[in-house]
Amino acid sequence: MTGGTVRWRDGEMEGRRRLWKLPKLSMRRNELFIEPLMQMPLLFDIKRYAIHDGPGIRIVIFLKGCNLSCAWCHNPEGIPAGQERMYAPARCIRCGTCVEACPNRALTLTSGGIATDTALCRMCGACAEVCPTKAIELSGTRLTVEEIMMEIEKERVFFEQSGGGVTFSGGEPLLHPDMLLQLLDECGKRGIHRAVDTAGLVSSEILLQVAGHTDLFLYDLKMVDSVRHHQWTGVPNGKILENLRILAGTDTNLIIRIPLISGVNDDEDNLIQTAQFVATLPGEKKTVNLLPYHKIAQTKYLKLGRAVDFQLLEEPGAEAIQKAVEIFKEYGIEATVGG
Ligand code: SF4
Ligand code: SF4
Fold it and tell me: Range of 176's domain?
């Protein structure tokens, strides 16, 4: 398989990461790779009874590792490909058990809770294992294809009753094409409906290969202006738009999903640009889902120890959401609110 790279000007990447206080991704300086990640994927969540990630009742499998870092990301623990340690001070009863259990003396009990020396932590998980209140948890579990299929099969009765299935999400599931293709094939053989949720920053060859084994793509489109896209997600969007156009030209079922964030992309200019772009995609008229931003993920950032200026991100009001629906309608596009 082949792939390209998106190159950064000197310091650009670091500048944006400092602005949003995000951790470094595992990438070479000034190069953002769209090739598959080499390491075996970790899962950071399995969501059951999901009703917003494709048709019917679904199980959503979340794979770790993403090459975007959207400022509003609802799954920040899914951005790094490796394991992460999450600590919730509100759950901590200050028992000190984790301090004793840590083989690397990385933890200290302070008046404010547990302090971690990240230079000493080896992500062994001993602290999470002994914590009686689950105040410490490790995000990132390694499961085999067979183990994931066992989890999927447990939900079969719900798929059959509701017309549901499995959705692979992340992170960016297309950064793990080998495992993803194995899972998609296995689901296909068992007659389970398959959806893939992608941000689209991958090689076109991989995208099309996966499309041949997928029943539905949920394709995220944040904004059309590349400079703004770069500012808010850490990457330009030329490849993302190109891939969306390529995918729309195939017979793949496609739903375009647009997160709607006040002050980021709910302005008229962006919505008109986006509607114009969608209207000119090849193939049948595409369905658009508008996904209003909500703040429920903010506690995850605190648990990960990431400081983000939440003031910059606002939930859109009912009027702004309705306005967005109408703008798409003017271009002949049916936009529904929610997944
Ligand atoms: S993950 Fe392991 S090394 Fe890190 S703080 Fe916990 S016990 Fe210590
Ligand atoms: S073991 Fe859990 S509850 Fe006890 S001090 Fe550590 S983090 Fe807090």
Answer: 5-81+141-337
- Whether the CA torsion 317, 320, 324, 326 is positive or negative: it is positive
Which-ligand-closest: CA of 113?
2
- 102 with 193, same domain? no
Q: Are residues 331 and 284 in the same domain?
A: yes
Q: Is the pLDDT of residue 1 over 80?
A: no
Nearest to 66 by CA among 157, 220, 201: 201
CA separation for the pair 325, 213 (Å, rounded): 32
pLDDT value for 297: 77
pLDDT digits (tens, 9 = 90+) for 272-286: 999 999 999 998 878
Same domain, 195 and 132: no
> Distance between CA 62 and CA 196 in Å, rounded?
10
CATH code for the domain of 62: 3.20.20.70
Question: Domain count of the chain?
Answer: 2
Give the mutation target among 102, 116, 131, 138 for probing the ligand 2 site: most ligand atoms within 8 A of CB: 131
Is 85's C-beta closer than 6 angstroms to any atom of ligand 1?
Answer: yes
Q: Are residues 241 and 331 in the same domain?
A: yes
pLDDT, tens digit, for every residue of 180-226? 999 999 999 999 999 999 999 999 999 999 999 999 999 999 999 99
pTM confidence score: 0.85
DSSP 3-state of 49: strand
Looking at the CA of 131, which ligand is closest?
A: 2
Per-residue pLDDT at 7: 36
* Cβ partners under 8 Å of residue 288, min gap 6: 255, 256, 257, 258, 278, 328, 333, 334, 335, 336
